[in-house]
């Protein structure tokens, strides 16, 4: 039975209490008082007593209910204000790189450009595309975290190698006034951890990018240490800092530490919300220690149960990678996508064949013994990628298959692995990302 509305509850309570009061009080008074004049006076006092008591009760009930309504209205207005500010900020963050892409793509059509000008315009288009992709990814990530559709994919990997990769990636984008330092107390050991490497990398990427954004000059330090039974990660900077009153809010959706900084510092303001969501999905906690002008120190933990052990000497060979050129089958029906992939493979010296639909991919795998790996698009005519993988696995169970698709939302990676793929890469991907996937699966 659905709950009664508040006004119905008040009415029913009023009628029940009033009816019971009239019935029982009248019987009680008539048994005690026999004088008619005195009885009339008692009945008057009894009525006023009922009015006073019910008035107080209704006041307390209505006050409690009105406080809830007013708090809800206040939160709704605040949420509406934050969402409006967020949408305005998102619009700015999308339109700014789009302006660079559309504008400079149009300028490239002109015939009187020098090669240096063309190179500069292409560089601007590439950077604007990366900026736009980051905004789209942030919005999608927050939506997935909020809806509970994020799938954790845990794998074993070398933590020290992972930290060095983070250092290498971010060390190349620093300005001359900022230095990056890796302070890893686990550097003497080769720890193998079992967790979601992509999520952990995303947390570091957002925290270090934030540190770079809010540190005009100085030092950014990140690293990892063992603390009791947990791994404690940190990112510290000597930037502008964060006032204590914002320490909790900055991890919420649509919040930024200082509204006025949005005029000079870009970003959708979703990075820390994504960090918090991913950390909690991994079973840890995240917090900040900071004051205005004193820089910021972000910490997050990962439960120690995910730490397997230090790697044995004889196991190290398993983690070495080598790209072995061979015959790779590219199952891709879109011409533009195939042109992009084929260029990457040619530059890397990898021989490849093409299948334009799922059935053709199955036939090539069955009839060509030189195929050493398959890059399988999921959405294709005749047979989709998943159906094609199932049929390939019927006769060739050991060939590495990498699913590549624009379906990057939800549990698509898990679905790809469940049907028999060895790995998964989401579009759009960069040259290095594709080659890394190939290296990893040709070990």
CATH superfamily of the largest domain: Histidine kinase-like ATPase, C-terminal domain
Shape: elongated
Question: What portion of the residues fall into strands of 2 or more residues?
Answer: 15-25%
Low-confidence stretches: 258-264, 308-324
Q: What is the CATH fold-level name of the largest domain?
A: Heat Shock Protein 90
Strand arrangement, largest sheet?
A: 2-4-5-7-6
Average pLDDT confidence is: 79
What string gives the helices and strands in order?
Answer: HHHEHEEHEEHEEEEHEHEHEHEH
Note the total helix count. 11
User: Ends: how far apart?
Assistant: 61 Å
> What structural category do the secondary elements indicate?
alpha/beta
Q: Percentage of helical residues?
A: 40-55%
The total count of strands amounts to 13
For the record, the CATH class of the largest domain is Alpha Beta
Q: Which architecture of the largest domain would the CATH scheme give at its second level?
A: 2-Layer Sandwich
Radius of gyration, taken over Cα atoms and rounded to an integer in Å:
32 Å
For this structure, the quaternary state is: single chain
Largest sheet: 5 strands, mixed
| Total individual domains | 3
């Amino acid at each position: 039975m659905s709950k009664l509305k508040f006004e119905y509850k008040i009415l029913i309570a009023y009628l029940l209490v009033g009816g019971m009061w009239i019935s029982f009080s009248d019987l009680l008074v008539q048994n005690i008082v026999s004088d008619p004049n005195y009885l009339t006076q008692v009945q008057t006092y009894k009525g006023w007593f009922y009015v006073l008591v019910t008035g107080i009760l209704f006041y307390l009930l209505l006050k409690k209910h009105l406080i809830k309504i007013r708090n809800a209205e206040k939160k709704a207005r605040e949420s509406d204000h934050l969402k409006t500010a967020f949408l305005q900020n998102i619009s700015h963050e999308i339109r700014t790189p789009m302006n660079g892409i559309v504008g400079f793509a149009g300028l490239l059509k002109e015939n009187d450009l020098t090669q240096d000008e063309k190179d500069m315009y292409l560089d601007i288009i590439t950077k604007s595309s990366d900026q736009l992709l980051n905004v789209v990814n942030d919005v999608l990530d927050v939506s997935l975290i909020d809806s509970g559709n994020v799938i954790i994919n845990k794998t074993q990997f070398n933590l020290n190698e992972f930290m060095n990769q983070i250092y290498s990636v971010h060390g190349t984008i620093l300005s001359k006034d900022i230095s990056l330092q890796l302070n890893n107390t686990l550097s003497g050991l080769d720890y193998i951890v079992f967790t979601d490497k992509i999520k952990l990398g995303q947390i570091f990427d957002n925290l270090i990018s934030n540190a770079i954004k809010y540190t005009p000059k100085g030092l950014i330090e990140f690293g990892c240490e063992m603390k009791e039974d947990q791994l404690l990660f940190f990112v510290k900077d000597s930037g502008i800092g964060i006032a204590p009153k914002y320490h909790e809010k900055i991890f919420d959706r649509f919040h930024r530490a200082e509204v006025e900084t949005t005029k000079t510092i870009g970003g959708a303001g979703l990075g820390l919300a994504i960090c918090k969501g991913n950390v909690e999905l991994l079973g840890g906690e995240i917090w900040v220690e900071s004051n205005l002008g004193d820089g910021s120190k972000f910490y997050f933990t990962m439960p120690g149960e995910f730490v397997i052990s230090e790697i044995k000497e004889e196991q190290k060979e398993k983690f070495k990678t080598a790209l072995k050129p061979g015959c790779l089958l590219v199952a891709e029906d879109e011409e533009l996508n195939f042109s992009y992939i084929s260029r990457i493979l040619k530059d890397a010296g990898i021989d490849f064949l093409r299948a334009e639909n799922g059935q053709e991919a199955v036939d090539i795998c069955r009839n060509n013994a030189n195929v050493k790996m398959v890059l399988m698009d999921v959405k294709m005519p005749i047979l989709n990628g998943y159906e094609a993988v199932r049929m390939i696995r019927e006769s060739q169970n050991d060939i590495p298959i990498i699913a590549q698709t624009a379906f990057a939302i939800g549990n698509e990676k898990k679905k790809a692995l469940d049907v028999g793929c060895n790995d998964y890469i989401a579009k759009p991907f960069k040259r290095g990302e594709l080659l890394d996937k190939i290296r990893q699966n040709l070990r």
